[in-house]
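We modelled the chain as a single entity of 713 amino acids. Its sequence is:
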Amino acid sequence: MASHSDTLVVFFGATAGANGGKLGSDERELILLVWQIVDLHEKKVGKLQRCLVKPDSLDLTEQCKEETSLTVDELLKAEALDSVLQQVQQSVSAEVKALGRSSYTLCVDGPLIIRQVLHPEASKKNLVLPECFYSFVDLRKEFHKCCPNSGPAKDLTLSSMLDYVCIPPVEDQMAGVTEVENMVLIALHILDEPYNHQFTGFEAVKYKFESGACSKTEAVDSETVIRARGLPWQSSDQDIARFFKGLNIAKGGVALCLNAQGRRNGEALVRFINSEHRDMALERHKHHMGSRYIEVYKATGEEFLKIAGGTSNEVTQFLSKENQVIIRMRGLPFTATPQDVLGFLGAESPVTDATEGLLFVKYPDGRPTGDAFVLFACEEYAQNALKKHKQILGKRYIELFRSTAAEVQQVLNRYMSTPLISTLPPPPMVQMPVMAAQPFLTTGTTRDCVRLRGLPYTAAIEDILEFMGEHTIDIKPHGVHMVLNQQGRPSGDAFIQMKSSDRAFMVSQKCHKKMMKDRYVEVFQCSTEEMSYVLMGGTLNRSGLSPPPCKLPCLSPPTYAAFTNPAAMLPTEALYQPPLLATPRTPQPPTHQAPTLAYYPPQAHAQLYMNMNMNYTAYYPSPPVSPSTMSYFAAPPGSMAAAVAAQPPPAMLQHGAQHGALVRMQGLPYNAGVKDILSFFQGYQYAPDEYSSMVQMSDQARSLIQPKEWLCL
């Protein structure tokens, strides 16, 4: 409403549940409305009106019965909410017109009755509220302007305001009437001398949610952000805005969260215009969206920017068209063109600006992902497009969903930041430190290991060490093993080698189902043999061990926990072995005493990734050893290899073998031994000393080679 309203409508409401400061927090329906008009020019009041509302559920709480003195029989005779609201509007309009005034604004004791009760209930019942309920003034804030020493506005009550201005309160036996009459007394008092107050603090309720883009560089106040959990997977930003109806969400302030597979995970981050609206949103914890209850928690601005923030100019230009409905298409053929998509959608759902309203999601190298976003000018066009859900384009069925600007940003950020093996630069040839110890992973039946299952996918080794707490002192050096899936992503599993079986048992008892971030983690005691089976792709179940499949999960990228003195470096020729050479090397003796807790410090991670810049071909697949152990190096570029060729040959080649004289064998049987390999090459002339150094690896070395791995001879 305009800021020059002639009259105030002092308005009060009560619900069938909690009232006062908890009004609307329990989703109870309105059962009582009371109002009275105040003429701002003549400082006169109109007739006090009181009306009961019949709720859908006639279950009244004991607190409600005590405070309102209403009974179920009285409510049965009342009318439904939509009829009562129409009566309110007609009655107020007629009275304002009789006074010769042209406009009016609601005046309430705090915003809860409007924002937390009236609008949410009308939204759930699909009612269209009259325009007068989208603007109001808060009597507490207006009183605080006149009397700033009375205390914070949010802490004021009718009794405290009356006491401050020394006005005796009105007491009435009828529920709601007392509150309205006291509110009228306060309003008339601040309108008169010496205050001569003018009501100008008009608050508005947004009619609809405004979509928009958010930049990574934008400042987001953490006191304005919440996290909603338990959302239906098909819910859109408009559905979430409807759940928070009555509260003003910032432009583009709804960000749907996606899981590791790019699908919605039932969570969303919502940004409000200020902390007051955020606090009211937290009061809707476990309110219902349909048949589901939604959990509401505090969140941070950093979390919101991580999901909703973007830096792509292409996305910014795509989202610059306001008031557009966004639809996400998933499962498109990789050969699909813009014309194919437009033809699939048809003339009944025209895309905004034709091909300009299409955004295909691609990998950094330009390959299509099968996802696309489409803009429609109105809801009708979007509905027509959604009717084509799971229809066929080419030889594939296409999924269509409502989407948001934040989801567009999130999907583009996710795909554009995905590392591709083919695009990574070759590793720089730098001297590598000698490992201070041999691999710690050996086979055995001693149950001195623990398995962590159900880890958050974002968990790092530092999170595991924090999760273990005081038990970290019992972890063997280099004894933390993160398990990755075929795509190189965390699988949620990890293995930890402890110093003894007693320590492993203690950890499994103390840490089982302990929380890490938002998830509980299962901790089981196991043996090194069982750990090796899982790391090589097998499974652990109640019936025992099942053998590893052909395609295996991978260990996490190699990291270093301790570095030796720079003097103790490998010779130059040792850096240029054939790629993925699995033959174990005898480590150089360390030149210093390694620290007791020498595993995975953060600075080691940084030094490894910043200085080495190794590519993923060196990471995956890796033999089932501690991820802190490097037993092979990537091949050097051709120019570097030529330079190395001029150096003295390694000891293994000093007996006449030359570069390129090695062969590798793939697909060896699991039970193949060294004799089987020598028999396979029978007839070829080898001097015994030419392969004696390689034969030494025998069973111990074979335990470090995954099935389908490379064996260099």
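As a brief sanity check on the tokenised model: Residues 418-441, 542-645, 649-660, 686-713 have pLDDT under 50 and may be disordered. The CA atoms of residues 433 and 564 lie 6 Å apart.
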